[in-house]
Here is the input.
Amino acid sequence: MRSKGIMANTFIKHKHWSVFWYLWALQVIWSSITVAQELDRDSLRAKVVQFQQQPGYEKDTVFIRTLNHLAYRYWSTSPDSVMAISKRSLTFSKRIGYQRGAVTAMIHIGTAHYEKGNFQEAIEVEKNALMKAEKMGFNKEIGVLCINLSMVYLDIGMYEQAQQLAYRGLEIATANGFEKQVARNHWTIGQVYELQGKLQEARESFARSKELYERAGYQRLLHLLDISIGRVYLKENQPAKAQEFYQKALKESGELGHRAGMVRAFMALGDFLEQTGKSGEAMEKYAEAKNIAVALGTEQKVAEANLKIAKCLLETGKLKEAYDQVQTGLELARDIHHMALTRDGFLFLSKIQAAMGDYKPALDSYQEYTLLGDSLMNQEVRMQLVKAEEQFRHDQEIQTVNQKYQGQLLRQRNYTYFILAVSILLVFIVLLLALYLRNIRRTSRIQKAHQKKIDEQNRELERIGKFKDRILSVVAHDVKTPLNSLKSTVDMYQEGMFNKEEMNMLTQQISTKLNEVNYFVNDLVLWAKSQMTQASARPNGFEIKGLVEKTISLLLWDAKRKGIEISDRTQPGMAYADEEMVKIVVRNFLANAIKYCDNGDQIILSTRSDSEERLLVVSVEDTGTGIPAEKLPYIFDEVNMSTEGTHHEIGTGLGLVLCRQYIEMNNGKIGVESERGKGSVFWFAIPLEEQGS
Here is the structure.
């Protein structure tokens, strides 16, 4: 309340009535909004007292969490209160073994040290807290400590370490979905870039942080990021963009009723206007910031605003008003023991006194400024010592890690050499085995090739042996029998056992037997030739009907002799195959039909075209004896033996085998359909001649 009285007296004394009444109105309007934080503190304090007043109450985790919440509420206003409450919380946490409570208390103690400028103490406490959090796996607390430590390193000028911690915190926060920490780490990274002079990267990081805060609903922090972005634009010599973001920060804070944010925004706008030579407008912004700070009770901001107003008044030549303002600000700065503001206050006072002609007081004030400068220099030296000590520790840690790494590298190198030697030995052994196996495989291939050749020779010998046996069997059965019959007939005739008429009748039978032997010899020669040589077809285009007619004319007498009718229903058509082979097939089919037909039977030869497969189908249908069902599957096999015809005709049994071989040589098909006592249909299909061939 003392500061509020000083502010009111100052404005009344200098008759700034319009500004005074405006600020007083703002104070009345906002006073009901900004008491929430104080009420929250009061409720937390009351809760702590209530716990302590309970008879026999033991300090538990609920009590410790309440203390930690209360300490958090003092972060921005009273570092000493944060320190006292957090130390108490840390004691109780250690007593009951509450690890998370202890880590949180240590975070608050580190923050209090930081706010008081005790950077070395802040680093030590927060590093210990980080080790404990890592051991317990408290990811959220690890993220907070990364942010806090990076801020300390920023202030002592260790930018690389600050950036490493910020990126580590960003990684942890992103992996665990801690939205606020992700945004805060982007903010810290932006501050590092700004201090390094990477202004575009700084703006991008600030903008990313603001976007994340806005998405997560943390509206009360947006004005700080707008101020940071405006500050970067000002460094980039873009004053219009800087003013735009300062105005945006003020608007956002006002809409939320966030008075501390409005103080920051008004101060930023004042600094901007003062730097651009608009001291009068800057003074108004400082005055508005001062009035709100008075209402909030933030004495540091009140003192800072007083000094800035004094500077503006000095620049505009209003020395008396400037003197009053600097005295008020200086008194307040000394009361709160703010050395930097006190030093600035003595400097401004010295300049004002010199401008007013009070040279002796001006000299005294400047001497005070100089003395405080020495104190600040000592503080700066202390900060540099902290930085040097921390850098030394950092270097020691790196050296320890490097030594450990070198040891591991040496062990790894020795292990690598060992593995390399073993690998070379194994490769050598594998090569020897490969050569040995190669020789074995080569020998095996040679043996297999010899064996294959021997097997082929054995199969050929076996085939020749079977061929020989079959020739002997056929000759013994189908040649010896008719020749013996012929010889017997001739011998009986020579002995006079037959007269002339009987001999004429026997002559016809002998002729028939000789025809059979002739057919047999022809089939035998052709079959033997196909077995002994690699016969191949020589296809050409020919007319099928002419071929069938010639074959019928050759066998027509045999059919008439047995009383068999032959019907030619073939149609003209051009086939493409070996004509001589097809002749043999047609002759065999027709001869077999005659052989197994008797008086009154009928044989029909016909053709048809299969346009889909481009084949010409020739069939020989008879009404003869037919074939038993059990013999049909083997009718075209070499194992099939010939049976006697209706007039005891004999055959080799090789004709149908030849037919199958010849038709297959010409890319054709062959088949039979038959039923015992109802006749048979033998057919084959050969390619049609293509048009234009």
Q: What stands out?
A: The first helix runs from residue 2 to 13. DSSP finds 23 helices and seven strands in the chain. The CA atoms of residues 377 and 479 lie 138 Å apart. Residues 536-687 form a domain with the Heat Shock Protein 90 fold (CATH 3.30.565.10).
